[in-house]
Design a protein that fits this description.
alpha+beta, 33% strand, 299 residues, 7-stranded antiparallel beta sheet
Length: 299
């Protein structure tokens, strides 16, 4: 093989490695741009439903839950027995398959929950889960499973500044982590906050928490969220969340926005290994071809 041919092969391998490194960030999407709706479910006197918006390249830019204005009316005054609130589970549309999220759960807590004096007011917990419902239902938060709830999240996989909330392990949810700098933890009245959840040492949900009274003010709110530096799987992850009211449609929307591609360490290591192989191949001297005269003499 000539040196030019060898270099051509090396560059081809490098091109493949780069494409695999960026994976879904640059690959062609099978979906058209637009907003796709998922499951809809009755909530209160209204309806709640999920959706995902894909950008001009067909990649996810935001996911969310929207509920009609009437969904805030006729909500249960008492949670089901053994639960702290009423759960409304909603599957995300299949077009959200390049995000980590499989489904959302809106938890209505008429009496709030722990800790007393902070979150014990009527509010919604809007969970976006990165595990399947069947896996979530296996979380009991008692006995040996409580230890799995309390398993530490490795450094880098949890956003800096977030602290474990002791006593906030819940069945079918897992453990909760709160922002140590959140205003409600420093004497201010709770209206909204952003929470992470974990189970068995992995982040499994992103959760905006919003009081019913604050939502009813019809906010136009958006805020960056504190982010981890490392992710357990390669996907598009949110960088902000928002809560908005659409007066024309008479709907409220809770969204995770600013979706950005994040590469998991395992994928990075795989690509790095391929790149090292490519560089090693490039450093080898190319085999020399016999001259035409020598080739003729050999014959």
């Amino acid at each position: 093989m000539s040196r030019s041919m060898a270099l051509a092969c090396v560059f081809a391998l490098m091109s493949v490695a780069v494409r695999q490194a960026s994976a879904c960030e640059t690959c062609k999407s099978p979906y058209r741009p637009g907003t796709y709706t998922g499951e809809a479910r009755r909530m209160g006197n209204g309806v709640a439903y999920t959706w995902v918006t894909l950008n001009e390249k067909g990649k996810p830019s935001s996911v969310g839950v929207t509920f009609t204005e009437t969904a805030l009316e006729g909500l249960p005054a008492v949670p089901p027995k053994g639960m702290i609130g009423t759960e409304y589970m909603l599957s995300l549309p299949r077009q959200a398959d390049k995000t980590p999220f499989s489904h959302a759960v809106v938890n209505w807590n008429p009496n709030g929950h722990v800790p007393a004096g902070i979150y014990d007011v009527p509010h919604f917990d809007v969970h976006f889960y990165a595990i399947a419902p069947a896996k979530r239902y296996q979380i009991t938060a008692v006995g040996k499973d409580l230890a799995r709830c309390r398993k530490p999240v490795p450094a880098g996989y949890m956003a800096a500044g977030y602290i474990y909330a002791p006593g906030a392990e819940e069945r079918e949810m897992g453990a909760h982590w709160v922002d140590a700098a959140a205003p409600e933890l420093h004497g201010q009245r709770f209206t909204k906050t952003f929470v992470y959840g974990s189970y068995d040492g992995k982040v499994i949900f992103y959760e905006p928490m919003l009081t019913k009274a604050w939502i009813e003010t019809r906010p136009e709110f958006s805020e960056p969220i504190k982010l981890p530096t490392t992710y357990s799987r390669s996907d598009f992850y949110p960088t902000s969340y928002s809560v908005r009211y659409d007066e024309a449609r008479r709907e409220y929307t809770v969204a995770l926005e600013g979706m950005t591609w994040r590469e998991a360490p395992a994928a990075k290591a795989k690509v790095a290994g391929r790149s090292a192989s490519v560089k090693k191949a490039a450093s080898r001297p190319a085999s020399r071809q016999p001259s035409a005269g020598r080739a003729a003499a050999a014959r």
